[in-house]
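### Sample
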Amino acid sequence: MFNLISLLIGIVTFIFLVVVFIVPLVGGIGAWLALVAAIIATGIGQLSSSKTGRNFGIFVILVALLRISIGGGIL
């Protein structure tokens, strides 16, 4: 059950992150919000015996960090 919740949060966060990549006006704040949501999804996925949700959450975290670094949010 935790794996399914983690996957759902991760998928919604990834879709939001794709929109953040396209629309530059919400890019900075949106990427930080996606990062927080992906960290929460990864934490929930860690509670599950299956690791698919956790791994997808880690992938979304890496994509969010890439977007933040492109925008200059991490110095």
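The chain has three helices and no strands. This sample (Transmembrane protein) is used throughout the tutorial notebook.
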